[in-house]
Design a protein that fits this description.
The chain is mainly β. The chain is 11% helix and 30% strand. Among the domains are: 103 residues, Cadherins (Immunoglobulin-like, Sandwich), CATH 2.60.40; 98 residues, Cadherins (Immunoglobulin-like), CATH 2.60.40.60; 113 residues, Cadherins (Immunoglobulin-like, Sandwich), CATH 2.60.40. The chain contains five helices and 25 strands. Strands 18, 20, 23, 24 and 25 form a five-stranded mixed sheet that branches. A four-stranded mixed sheet has the order 1-7-6-3, with no helix packed on it. A four-stranded mixed sheet has the order 9-16-15-12, with no helix packed on it. Strand 24 and strand 25 form a beta hairpin. The longest helix is centred in the C-terminal third of the chain and has 26 residues. It is flat and about 185 Å long. The termini are far apart. Pfam families: CADH_Y-type_LIR, Cadherin. This is CAD11 protein. It is a single-pass type I membrane protein. Cadherins are calcium-dependent cell adhesion proteins.
Length: 521
């Protein structure tokens, strides 16, 4: 007899134990095959032959449950694979053995009585309404207590709560079927003393519809009726929509309110297919008198109890041709003679705005002062240059210009400020170099200026006053000025001036040959 044991948590295919029959033969005569021929565990176990070790391997065939059956018994047979016919009379070449297998208890997670649960609850039910109850138990012999909880990942809005001890599920918020018709949550069951052992079951909750929504227009209708419409002429068909379930929705009933049941302009006909037609009751409409009519329509559903709502249909009067095609629904065409249209007024205002913009731009440009590109003489800071447009007659010509204009008024006082640089300190001219009054000789005036410039340490390396010292550099005739005549010792021949014509006669007489000058003297 072989004694074996296996846990109830073992999976099918797992090895339970081994048996071995001894055969003194060798080779193929010693090969043994094993099989189960009897026992109450034939459906739960199986045996195979390991030809390398000549052993029978007992394996689990189905899952076990300790609480259901705690032990099994098997009758295993071992037989030769090859039997020599010469020795068949010595048989039988086989043997049997009894294998007893004990099932060991394992710590199993809780088990729900159902693989899934489906509950129903009415919409708008009060908070705390019981939805249903789930139940799980511990399959182990200890039968530990179970605690329940809801997987919050499946109930993010927290519509439900569960009693941790008895598994009752209740609502904590009112439910609206029109928002969510089904709620699918998951419930956990864990052992009180072994938190790692848990089970999970899906729970589907159906929200049962109640008639809490009245029917309304299926769309935002706007009807048009011709001015020349005939009596009993149908011009629009309407339908309704209800958010409730079909049991509390259609069929819809259309009617006019009792106070306008005898409306002189329009009437309503229920088509009994959840639609209704609106008809003209009289002939002839005028846009000038009234271009818009509002018709209230009552719609009721087939729920218990039935609900109804009043919806308003806008009907606009339009101009149509003879075939009933719309031409215009605007009453503005009749008042064009009395005033301007909106488009014309907009055009006039646009023209006025454009004219105003042009006038403002013109005035702005007129007022804007542009800076001149050429600086006039009186604004030029270089005031030490004076321009003359007449010719002088030399030293004897004292009336052509006033020598005082060449003098800087500041120079009379002995102080000549510089205007081209910023001096580091003020220069005081030497005593005795003060220029004479207006009757001073030009040569003395120029010499005075030269000495001031030479003795002024703040003066730049150039001086505009040098233009009075020499004129005509590069000219064949040399200098025509008499400014250097007092300081030069060279004798120049000016006889060629006699050939220049009457305009230069005065110069020719002044600067002629020396002999001629002596004779004249």
């Amino acid at each position: 007899v072989y004694q074996m044991s296996v846990s109830e948590a073992a999976v099918p295919g797992e090895e339970v134990g081994r048996v071995k029959a001894k055969d003194p033969d060798i080779g193929e005569n010693g090969l043994v095959a094993y099989s189960i021929i009897d026992g109450d565990g034939m459906d739960m176990f199986e045996i195979t032959t390991d030809y390398e070790t000549q052993e029978g391997v007992v394996k689990l065939k189905k899952t076990l449950d300790y609480e259901t059956k705690k032990s099994y018994s098997l009758k295993v047979e071992a037989a030769n694979v090859h039997i020599d016919p010469k020795f068949i009379s010595n048989g039988p070449f086989k043997d049997t053995v009894t294998v007893k297998i004990a099932v060991e208890d394992a710590d199993e997670p809780p088990v729900f009585l159902k693989p899934s649960y489906i509950f129903e609850v009415q919409e708008n039910a009060a908070s705390g309404t019981v939805v249903g109850k789930v139940h799980a138990k511990d399959p182990d012999a200890a039968n530990s207590a179970i605690r329940y909880s809801i997987d919050r990942h499946t109930d993010l809005e927290r519509y439900f709560v569960i009693n941790a001890e008895d598994g009752n599920i209740k609502t904590i918020k009112t439910l609206d079927r029109e928002e969510m018709a089904w709620h699918n949550i998951s419930v956990f069951a864990v052992e009180v003393h072994k938190q790692h052992q848990e089970a999970k079951v899906p729970v589907a909750i159906k929200v049962v519809d109640i008639n809490d929504n009245a029917p309304k227009f299926a769309a935002a209708y706007e009807a048009f009726v011709c001015e020349n419409a005939r009596s009993n002429q149908q011009f629009i068909t309407i339908s309704a929509d209800d958010k409730d379930d079909s049991a509390n929705g259609p069929r819809f009933i259309f009617s006019l309110p009792p106070e306008i049941i005898h409306n002189p302009n329009f009437t309503l006909r229920d088509n009994r297919d959840n639609t209704a037609s609106v008809l003209v009751r009289r002939e002839g409409f005028s846009r000038q008198k009234q271009d818009l009519y509002l018709l209230p329509i009552v719609i009721s559903d087939g729920g218990v109890p039935p609900l109804s709502s009043t919806n308003t249909l806008s009907i606009r009067v339009c101009g149509c041709d003879g075939s009933g095609s719309l031409l215009s629904c605007n009453a503005e065409a009749y008042v064009l003679n009395a005033g301007l249209s909106t488009g014309a007024l907009i055009a006039i205002l646009a023209c006025i705005v454009i004219l105003l913009v042009i006038v403002v731009l013109f005035v702005t440009l007129k007022r804007q002062k542009k800076e001149p590109l050429i600086v006039f003489e009186e604004e030029d800071v270089r005031e030490n240059i004076i321009t003359y447009d007449d010719e002088g007659g030399g030293e004897e010509d004292t009336e052509a210009f006033d020598i005082a204009t060449l003098q800087n008024p500041d120079g009379i006082n002995g102080f000549v400020p510089r205007k081209d640089i910023k001096p580091e300190y003020q220069y005081l001219p030497r005593p005795g170099l003060r220029p004479a009054p207006n009757s001073v000789d030009v040569d003395d005036f120029i010499n005075t200026r030269i000495q001031e410039a030479d003795n002024d340490p703040t003066a730049p390396p150039y001086d505009s006053i040098q233009i009075y010292g020499y004129e005509g550099r590069g000219s064949v005739a040399g200098s025509l000025s008499s400014l250097e005549s007092a300081t030069t010792d060279s004798d120049l021949d000016y006889d060629y001036l006699q050939n220049w014509g009457p305009r230069f006669k005065k110069l020719a007489d002044l600067y002629g040959s020396k002999d001629t000058f002596d004779d004249d003297s």
